[in-house]
Amino acid sequence: MIETLPLVKAEEAYKRMMGGNARFRMVLTMT
Amino acid sequence: MRNTYRAMEVTSPGVFSLVERKIAVPSAGQVRIRVEACGVCHSDAATVEAQFPNLSYPRVPGHEVIGRIEEVGPGVTAWKVGHRVGVGFFGGEDGTCEACRRGETAYCANAIMTGITTDGGYAEVMIAEARALALIPDGLKSEDAAPLVCAGITTFNALRNAARAGDTVAIQGVGGLGHLGVQFARKMGLRTVAIGGGPDKEHLAQKLGAHVYIDAKAQDAAAALQKLGGADVILATAPSGAAIGSLLPGLKTRGKLVAVGVSEDAIPVNGVPLIFGGRSLAGSLPEERLRLKTPWISAYSQMSVQ
């Protein structure tokens, strides 16, 4: 189970993960 | 084709910067990958927060990388342009240190660490060592495959090495690692106990396959495990040393507490249940590291883990 965000939002994805808020794995996409 | 690509660098601790970089040619033994997806792992903090000693910036984090090979360097015979591959944390062994000479390349003393000692997958393009790649089977979407090359292989191998069908296994934490651990445990034929902090994860844990859910905030998780007869194995995924240490008395005699979530605080261990129960606390790395055709990735697909 993943949540995707585009590469430009890497910081947001990282912060969601570190905050324990990812459901359940953040994945960056390049397209 | 553009001769540049976008990458998300960390330029100093905590600071991300989107940059345009020139596309490089892979050296001998390397490939260049057009990245399709990259998972975000708690261990990325090693790069982002400068937790890794002597880290040099700028550095591109990311070690759950899936992409297609677009150029192979000299001497690379196993891989061709167009292959879809995965790159995990372990970016390649030196082949000469003592661990490598024992055949334990996963513990290489001078391993390349993707996204830490070399640039990782928070980018449209990445250079990787051919010897560290895994082939990604068709039918698995790149974004779904990304967490498998770190979180997936970590939990899968820890369970496979420590538990046997029929064992009672507790997965501590129902997060980025634990949600995979619960699913693997159930599909491996283990009596699966999920341990979460609060009542909100109970429904999810059961949906993922847990037979029993323990709310560690509402009760003593180790005592609750003992009420179930004790755990043969506890897989500790949540990054809290204090929480991990408190679970040790929940093991059966000779049981094993396996830590895979890296915590900043120390793991306190009470010697009485440790010694008088013959229990053990161990760390686990994916010992069967990514290989050319990694059987666990196929197993993962067949197990329909999500």
Radius of gyration of chain B: 20 Å
Summarize model confidence as the mean pLDDT of chain A.
Answer: 95
* Uncertain runs of chain A: none
Order of helices and strands of chain B: EEEHEEEHEEEHHEHEHEHEHEHEH
Helix content of chain B: 10-25%
Gap between N and C termini of chain A: 20 Å
Work out the strand percent of chain A. Answer: 25-35%
What is the strand arrangement across the widest sheet of chain B?
12-11-10-13-14-15
Largest sheet of chain B: 6 strands, parallel
Count the E strands of chain A. Answer: 2
Shape of chain B: elongated
Largest interface: A-B, 21 and 35 residues
Query: In terms of per-residue confidence, which ranges of chain B show pLDDT below 50 for 5 or more consecutive residues?
Result: none
Beta-strand segment tally of chain B: 15
Q: Major sheet of chain A: size, sense and barrel closure?
A: 2 strands, parallel
Could you characterize what this model shows?
The complex is a heterodimer of chains A (31) and B (306). In chain A, 29% of the residues lie in helices and 32% in strands. By secondary structure, chain A is an alpha+beta fold. In chain A, strand 1, helix 1 and strand 2 form a beta-alpha-beta unit. The longest helix of chain A has 9 residues, at 10-18. The mean pLDDT of chain A is 95. Chain B is of the alpha/beta class and 306 residues long. Helices cover 23% and strands 28% of the residues of chain B. Chain B has helices spanning 45-48, 98-101, 142-145, 151-162, 178-187, 202-208, 221-227, 241-246, 271-276, 295-303, and strands spanning 4-12, 15-22, 30-40, 65-72, 84-87, 90-92, 112-113, 125-129, 134-135, 168-172, 191-196, 212-215, 231-236, 251-259, 280-283. In chain B, the strands form 4 sheets. Chain B has a 6-stranded parallel β-sheet, with helices on both faces. A 5-stranded antiparallel β-sheet of chain B has the order 8-3-4-5-9. In chain B, strands 1-2 form a two-stranded antiparallel ribbon. The radius of gyration of chain B is 20 Å and the shape is elongated. Strand 2 of chain A pairs antiparallel with strand 3 (30-40) of chain B.
